[in-house]
Every structure is written in C-alpha cells, then in structure tokens.
Amino acid sequence: MDANTLYENLKRIQQAKGYYFSQDRAHVMGLMEALLLNKERYGYMVCPCRLASGDREADKDIICPCVYREPDVREYGSCYCNLYVSRAWNEGTIPHEYVPERRPPEKMMF
C-alpha cells in the first residue's frame, strides 16, 4: 500500500465517524508515510508522533487512531499529531491551540 491509498482508505472510514484530515496536505501525507514506515518496522501503524516500544501490547494505546484522539479532538479540535481534526478546525472557526500529550509518562518508558 502507498501513502495515497492509505489516505483515501482512512479518509473514507474516519470521515464517516466525524474525523477529518487536516487541510495541511503536506503534513498529512508525511504522517501517512510515517504510518506505513511504522507498519513495516513494527507490524502495526503506531502513532508517528510518539516513541513506540515495538511491543504491540505496550503500544496499543498509540496505534493510530490512538485512544487519545477522541478526547483531543473534542477538547482542542485536533489530535496530538494534527492528523485528525474536527470540521471546525479545518474551517478555522476554533483556535489552533497546542495539543498537550495525554499519554501517561509511565507508558513512555521502556
């Protein structure tokens, strides 16, 4: 699979759930490439914005879309990576604030 195919597949699935890709196409496509690289590296599409352990069970909270996406988008209009955003984010009707890391520090230590 290439980045464009991944983009189209995820776009179709996630828009039906109310999640959109950021309009910054270059940023989004870079993340698509990184997701595919992580799939090759680890065997699963772990978040490219976080450090993975390589242990699927330990990383299950950051397999994209991560478990933090829903609260991030609800509160900030964007996930941590700025990959998935709300309609309001893309329309510019809400501020584009920094999205803090929600992953507990103990999950980031290997």
Notes on the structure:
The chain is mainly alpha-helical. Helices cover 44% and strands 4% of the residues. The protein has helices spanning 3-15, 25-42, 56-59, 69-76, 87-91, and strands spanning 20-21, 84-85. It has a two-stranded antiparallel sheet with strand order 1-2. Helix 1 (3-15) packs across helix 2. The protein is globular, with a radius of gyration of 14 Å. The protein starts with a helix and ends in a 19-residue tail after the last helix.
State the helical fraction.
40-55%
- Report mean pLDDT, rounded to a whole number: 95
Number of strands: 2
Category from helices, strands and their pairing: mainly alpha
Shape assignment: globular
User: Helix and strand string, N-terminal first?
Assistant: HEHHHEH
Summary, kept brief:
This protein is mainly alpha-helical. Helix content is 44%, strand content 4%.
SSE diagram, text form:
Blueprint: H1 3-15, E1 20-21, H2 25-42, H3 56-59, H4 69-76, E2 84-85, H5 87-91
Helix pairs in contact: 1-2
